[in-house]
């Protein structure tokens, strides 16, 4: 018997408004479908970080057509005010610090909002997020969902947020409660907390819904592409299958570097060059890391390079970012083929 059968929703309040957080990944899709099965009216929200794959945008935009559920609403963080504030600081303080005028003017020009939340956040902070400073989840997902959707809903009554978090995903997630109050005043509920990955696929099969196609491309998780919690093998697959996204990260590194005083910023900023053990402290740009991600055994390579870094995993109370597969998934330690196979539910009929 699967845990799926024990997860029927019970609303704590008759006026409760239900909000499902959707990332485009398998777990949040499972709770979207669970809410649909409950027969209650609900809203669904997706936070667009600006660092997502086009297949995820398409999957989220068409989820309602394929399931009969509500259209997923999209929110986006806006960093215009932070950029304007920091631009003023650059123009006022950098010349006093003796910084060359050409550099000041270039940095100030780059503080014009691009409209891409991830890039604008990094320009305004002068750096990319990292495992140790994972401000991306709160700034790009939690805050826009809270201010643009949850806050207005709370004015009409209690809000219950449904979260696609499972205990089996990570030790951190296993310590989370099934229910708790969020600082916004809403309640958080993790209805598939005890589900295994097979329950999640069974839920997709029950609705004849194909999961996000990124899993079929060998991605172990759906979310930012790449995510700061990306592992070595994931980075290699992204570079092999979606080189345009590596090109984008390279352009972003150029922009964020030119917009900050250090004239340096790397997407994975807290790591030294894994291909050059003789020069510890030299930070690695995306191309160096892609090159390293293709190394196998022998020579100078740091096999556990990313995995040894402290932090890791989405630390948000809301669990809005999908985790990299853990030991619960046979794919976690397996080959690309094994991972891709286990990331696909088997369908007995034609999926949508
Ligand atoms: S933790 Fe990863 S998926 Fe989540 S916002 Fe940060 S980069 Fe994106």
UniProtKB/TrEMBL annotation:
<dbReference type="InterPro" id="IPR014729">
    <property type="entry name" value="Rossmann-like_a/b/a_fold"/>
</dbReference>
<feature type="region of interest" description="Disordered">
    <location>
        <begin position="317"/>
        <end position="352"/>
    </location>
</feature>
<dbReference type="Pfam" id="PF01507">
    <property type="entry name" value="PAPS_reduct"/>
</dbReference>
<dbReference type="InterPro" id="IPR050128">
    <property type="entry name" value="Sulfate_adenylyltrnsfr_sub2"/>
</dbReference>
<feature type="domain" description="Phosphoadenosine phosphosulphate reductase">
    <location>
        <begin position="19"/>
        <end position="228"/>
    </location>
</feature>
<dbReference type="InterPro" id="IPR002500">
    <property type="entry name" value="PAPS_reduct_dom"/>
</dbReference>
<feature type="region of interest" description="Disordered">
    <location>
        <begin position="1"/>
        <end position="22"/>
    </location>
</feature>
<protein>
    <submittedName>
        <fullName>Phage-related protein</fullName>
    </submittedName>
</protein>
<dbReference type="GO" id="GO:0003824">
    <property type="term" value="F:catalytic activity"/>
</dbReference>
<feature type="compositionally biased region" description="Polar residues">
    <location>
        <begin position="1"/>
        <end position="20"/>
    </location>
</feature>
């Amino acid at each position: 018997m699967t845990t799926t059968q024990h997860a029927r929703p019970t609303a704590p309040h008759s006026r409760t408004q239900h909000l499902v957080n959707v990332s485009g990944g398998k777990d949040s899709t499972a709770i979207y479908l669970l809410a649909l099965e409950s027969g209650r009216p609900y809203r669904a929200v997706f936070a667009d970080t600006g660092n997502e794959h086009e297949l995820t945008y398409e999957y989220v935009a068409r989820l309602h057509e394929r399931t009969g559920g509500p259209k997923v609403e999209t929110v986006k963080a806006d960093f215009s005010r932070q950029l304007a504030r920091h631009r003023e600081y650059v123009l006022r303080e950098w010349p006093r610090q003796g910084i060359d005028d050409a550099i000041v003017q270039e940095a100030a020009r780059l503080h014009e909002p691009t409209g891409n939340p991830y890039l604008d956040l990094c320009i305004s902070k002068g750096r990319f997020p990292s495992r140790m400073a994972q401000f991306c989840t709160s700034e790009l997902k939690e805050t826009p969902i809270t201010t643009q959707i949850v806050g207005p809903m709370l004015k009409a009554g209690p809000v219950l947020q449904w979260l696609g978090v499972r205990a089996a995903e990570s030790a951190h997630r296993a310590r989370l409660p099934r229910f708790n109050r969020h600082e916004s005043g809403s309640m958080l509920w993790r209805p598939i907390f005890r589900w295994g990955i097979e329950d999640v696929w069974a839920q997709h099969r029950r609705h004849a819904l194909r999961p996000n196609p990124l899993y079929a491309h060998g991605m172990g998780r759906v979310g930012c592409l790449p995510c700061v919690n990306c592992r070595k093998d994931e980075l290699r697959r992204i570079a092999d299958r979606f080189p345009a996204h590596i090109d984008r990260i390279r352009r972003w590194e150029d922009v964020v570097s030119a917009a900050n005083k250090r004239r340096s910023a790397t997407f994975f900023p807290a790591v030294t060059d894994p291909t050059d053990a003789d020069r510890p402290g030299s930070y690695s740009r995306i191309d160096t890391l892609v090159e390293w991600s293709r190394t196998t055994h022998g020579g100078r390579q740091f096999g556990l390079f990313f995995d040894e870094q402290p932090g890791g995993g989405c630390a948000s109370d809301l669990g809005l970012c999908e985790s990299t597969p853990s030991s619960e998934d046979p794919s976690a330690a397996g080959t690309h083929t094994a991972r891709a196979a286990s990331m696909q539910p088997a369908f007995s009929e034609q999926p949508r």
